[in-house]
C-alpha cells in the first residue's frame, strides 16, 4: 500500500491504531523523544476529559492531529523514506540468514568428513559399520527428544510407511557403509574428486529413467569430472585399490539413492497421516530403520570380535569424537534444510561444489597426505569441474 493510501484509509474514530503506527515508525527511526512527548500529550488530554461527550470530542481532535501529522510526513516524503528503510532492513536480515545458514552448512559438512577420517585413520578404527550404527543411534535419540519436547514435528512410523521406505533405506545404509570403508583407505581430497562420478551416474540415470535431457555444458562438465577422477587416481601417491573399489560402489549407491528417493517420496507421502514427509521425518525414518539392519551387518562382518578386543572403547576421548561425529551427521541434515529454505536448490548445489575446495585443502594439510604436482593439478581440475557443473545446471534450469 502506498503512503497516501494509508493516510486516506485511516479511521478518524481510531486514534489507538494511528498511535500504534506512529509508535512503530518513530521507534524504527530512533525518535524516542518525540514519541515519549506524544504519548504524554495523549494521556493528559484523555485524563482531563470526564464526560463521554467531551471524551469523544477529544478523541476526534486527537485523531485529526495525528492524521495531519501523517499527511505532513507524506507531503515531505518522510513516510516513504521510512518505509524504504524498513524494506532495506528486511532485505539485510534475509541476506544475513542466508549467509549464516550457508556457513553453518559448510562447517558441518566439512567437519563431518574430517572427523570420520580422523576416527577411521588416526585412531585406526577398523569397524566402520559400528561407527555408522552409533552415529545413526545418536541421530535417532536427538530427533526423538526434539520431537518429544515439541521443538519439531515428525510423522509417526507406521507399518505401511516402513514397508514403503525399507527399499530406499537399504540403499541408504549401503551408501553410508561404503563411504566409511573408502574413507579409511583414501585421502579426503581424492574422495571429494571421486564423488564427482556420482553426478555422471545420476545424469545418465535421469536420462533413461526420467527422460530428462541435459545440454552440452552439463555433459562437458561431466566429461571433465571423469578425466579429473581418472588422472587423480593415476597420480595418487597413496593409491589403495580396496579404497577405490569401495568408493566406486559408493558412487553407484549414492546415485541410486538419489534416483530412488524421488519415486519413493511420492508413494510415502500417500501413506502418512498428514500427507507430507518433511526433512525431520525422513531423518528419523532413515536412521531408525538403519539400526536393526546395522546390527545385522555388524554380526555378519564379525565386528563384535574386533570391538571386544580393541582398547579404543576404553578411551573417553574416542567416545567424545565419535559422539561428535553423530551430532555432525545430524547437523548436516538440519543445516542443509535451513540453507535450502533461505536460498534455492541451485545455490545449494553451487555452494556444495565450492565447499569441496577448502575441504580438500584441509584434508591434505591436516592428515599430511603425500602429493605431487600432477595429483594436485588433477584435484584442482576436478574441483573446478564440479563448480562448472553446478553453474551449468543453474543456467539450464533458468532457461527452462
The percent range for strand residues is: under 5%
Q: Specify the overall morphology.
A: globular
Q: Averaged pLDDT, please?
A: 77
Number of helices: 16
Domain Sugar phosphate transporter: 101-388
Keywords: Membrane, Transmembrane, Transmembrane helix
Transmembrane segments: 98-120, 132-152, 164-183, 189-210, 217-235, 241-259, 280-301, 317-340, 347-367, 373-390
Subcellular location: Membrane
What can you tell me about this protein's structure?
Residues 101-388 form the Sugar phosphate transporter domain. InterPro entries: Sugar_P_trans_dom, TPT_transporter. It is found in: Membrane. With 400 residues, the protein is mainly α. The chain is built from 16 helices and no strands. The chain has helices at residues 3-8, 15-28, 32-48, 52-76, 78-122, 128-148, 159-185, 188-194, 196-209, 216-234, 241-270, 279-300, 303-309, 316-342, 345-366, 373-399. The longest helix has 45 residues, at 78-122.
Q: Which terms would index this structure?
A:
400 residues, 82% helix, globular, disordered N terminus, TPT_transporter, transmembrane helix, membrane, GDP-mannose transporter into the lumen of the Golgi, transmembrane
Task: Outline the fold blueprint.
Blueprint: H1 3-8, H2 15-28, H3 32-48, H4 52-76, H5 78-122, H6 128-148, H7 159-185, H8 188-194, H9 196-209, H10 216-234, H11 241-270, H12 279-300, H13 303-309, H14 316-342, H15 345-366, H16 373-399
Helix pairs in contact: 2-3, 2-4, 5-7, 5-14, 5-15, 6-7, 6-12, 6-14, 7-11, 7-12, 8-15, 9-10, 9-11, 10-16, 15-16
Organism: Datura stramonium
Protein name: GDP-mannose transporter into the lumen of the Golgi
Membrane topology: Multi-pass membrane protein
Amino acid at each position: 500500500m502506498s503512503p497516501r493510501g494509508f493516510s486516506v484509509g485511516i479511521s478518524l474514530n481510531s486514534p489507538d491504531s494511528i498511535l500504534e503506527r506512529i509508535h512503530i515508525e518513530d521507534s524504527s527511526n530512533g525518535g524516542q523523544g518525540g514519541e515519549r512527548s506524544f504519548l504524554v500529550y495523549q494521556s493528559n488530554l484523555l485524563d482531563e476529559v470526564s464526560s463521554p461527550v467531551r471524551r469523544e470530542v477529544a478523541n476526534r481532535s486527537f485523531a485529526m492531529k495525528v492524521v495531519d501529522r501523517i499527511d505532513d510526513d507524506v507531503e515531505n516524503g518522510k513516510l516513504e523514506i521510512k518505509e524504504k528503510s524498513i524494506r532495506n532492513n528486511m532485505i539485510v536480515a534475509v541476506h544475513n540468514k542466508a549467509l549464516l545458514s550457508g556457513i553453518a552448512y559448510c562447517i558441518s559438512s566439512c567437519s563431518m568428513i574430517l572427523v570420520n577420517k580422523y576416527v577411521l585413520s588416526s585412531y585406526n578404527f577398523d569397524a566402520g559399520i559400528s561407527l555408522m550404527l552409533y552415529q545413526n543411534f545418536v541421530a535417532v535419540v536427538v530427533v526423538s527428544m526434539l520431537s518429544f519436547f515439541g521443538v519439531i514435528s515428525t510423522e509417526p512410523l507406521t507399518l505401511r510407511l516402513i514397508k514403503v521406505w525399507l527399499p530406499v533405506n537399504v540403499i541408504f545404509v549401503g551408501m553410508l557403509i561404503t563411504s566409511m570403508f573408502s574413507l579409511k583407505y583414501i585421502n579426503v581430497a581424492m574422495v571429494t574428486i571421486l564423488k564427482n562420478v556420482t553426478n555422471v551416474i545420476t545424469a545418465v540415470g535421469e536420462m533413461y529413467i526420467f527422460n530428462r535431457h541435459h545440454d552440452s555444458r552439463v555433459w562437458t562438465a561431466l566429461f571433465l569430472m571423469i578425466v579429473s577422477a581418472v588422472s587423480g587416481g593415476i597420480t595418487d601417491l597413496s593409491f589403495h585399490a580396496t579404497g577405490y573399489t569401495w568408493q566406486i560402489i559408493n558412487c553407484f549407491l549414492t546415485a541410486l539413492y538419489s534416483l530412488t528417493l524421488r519415486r519413493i517420496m511420492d508413494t510415502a507421502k500417500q501413506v502418512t497421516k498428514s500427507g507430507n514427509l518433511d526433512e525431520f521425518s525422513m531423518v528419523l525414518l532413515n536412521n531408525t530403520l538403519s539400526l536393526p539392519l546395522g546390527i545385522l551387518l555388524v554380526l555378519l562382518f564379525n565386528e563384535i570380535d574386533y570391538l571386544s578386543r580393541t582398547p579404543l572403547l576404553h578411551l573417553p576421548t574416542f567416545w567424545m569424537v565419535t559422539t561428535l561425529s553423530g551430532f555432525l551427521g545430524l547437523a548436516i541434515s538440519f543445516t542443509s534444510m535451513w540453507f535450502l529454505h533461505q536460498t534455492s536448490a541451485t545455490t545449494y548445489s553451487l555452494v556444495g561444489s565450492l565447499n569441496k575446495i577448502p575441504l580438500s585443502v584441509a584434508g591434505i594439510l591436516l592428515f599430511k597426505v603425500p602429493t605431487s604436482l600432477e595429483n594436485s593439478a588433477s584435484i584442482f581440475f576436478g574441483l573446478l569441474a564440479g563448480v562448472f557443473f553446478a553453474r551449468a545446471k543453474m543456467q539450464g534450469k533458468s532457461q527452462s
